[in-house]
């Protein structure tokens, strides 16, 4: 019997209703290419595989990799590795050659969720959809709108790249062992209208980091270094980072990158 490892963020889903809802949301079909990050003992893996021709697993825990290799299930490819270092773009390009949708799914290890979400942005061009279970607080920040106290650097950067929706709230009892926090499922679809170049994206990171560097301070202070190039209005100079819309941050990134 596998004992859950804290360092790998192992909390195994056991609520059948929630497992069913997540699999229904992923809507697996034969021509779809799916990679699951962190299959654990297979709460999502087995029901997914029964509706897919092929499923790729990416798992860091050697014992779980050995377990899945031993299971030797038809259509399953087991990759031992760290999701933070995995080249999702190369995976998606390779898989999508045969046509069909490319999806990344997983009940993610919560201790690496933000860096992993940013790492996945690099592959967004070739991925059609992501469905993840995350800490509820993180999902609330991801989908928060300008003006709300949850609106943060994570909200702006991810909303610039994805359409996102909190789909399901999940209580700790749905897992074994139960985590200390509430969880939520988020659906992320890369924005069709995304048009930033790499240097514009870098500028977006720069201006957003500066704007949110001191949440309570006005942009007059936080964006002092950029103010002349951005043409901030009087109202914007007095505003705080959380009051500015994602579209306005994108406009600033474009101005900064020229
Ligand atoms: C929250 S558990 C989810 C397990 C299973 N999917 C479930 O729902 O019951 C997280 C899984 O991610 C794996 N994991 C942790 N860190 C990882 C990393 N950096 N790269 C890939 N997998 C990782 C863990 O070993 C574990 O299998």
From TrEMBL:
| Enzyme class name | transferase
The alphabetical list of record keywords is: Cytoplasm, Methyltransferase, RNA-binding, rRNA processing, S-adenosyl-L-methionine, Transferase
Coiled-coil boundaries:
none
**Superkingdom, natural source:** Bacteria
One term of GO molecular function = RNA binding
Is the keyword Nucleotide-binding in the record?
Answer: no
Give me the reactions it catalyses. Answer: adenosine(1518)/adenosine(1519) in 16S rRNA + 4 S-adenosyl-L-methionine = N(6)-dimethyladenosine(1518)/N(6)-dimethyladenosine(1519) in 16S rRNA + 4 S-adenosyl-L-homocysteine + 4 H(+)
Q: Which residues bind S-adenosyl-L-methionine?
A: 11, 13, 38, 59, 82, 107
One Gene Ontology term, aspect cellular component: cytosol
In the Enzyme Commission scheme, what number(s) does this protein have? 2.1.1.182
Function description = Specifically dimethylates two adjacent adenosines (A1518 and A1519) in the loop of a conserved hairpin near the 3'-end of 16S rRNA in the 30S particle. May play a critical role in biogenesis of 30S subunits.
**PANTHER family (UniProt xref):** DIMETHYLADENOSINE TRANSFERASE, DIMETHYLADENOSINE TRANSFERASE-RELATED
Q: Give the family per the record.
A: Belongs to the class I-like SAM-binding methyltransferase superfamily. rRNA adenine N(6)-methyltransferase family. RsmA subfamily.
Q: Which HAMAP family match?
A: 16SrRNA_methyltr_A
User: What is the name of this protein?
Assistant: Ribosomal RNA small subunit methyltransferase A
The species is Polynucleobacter wuianus
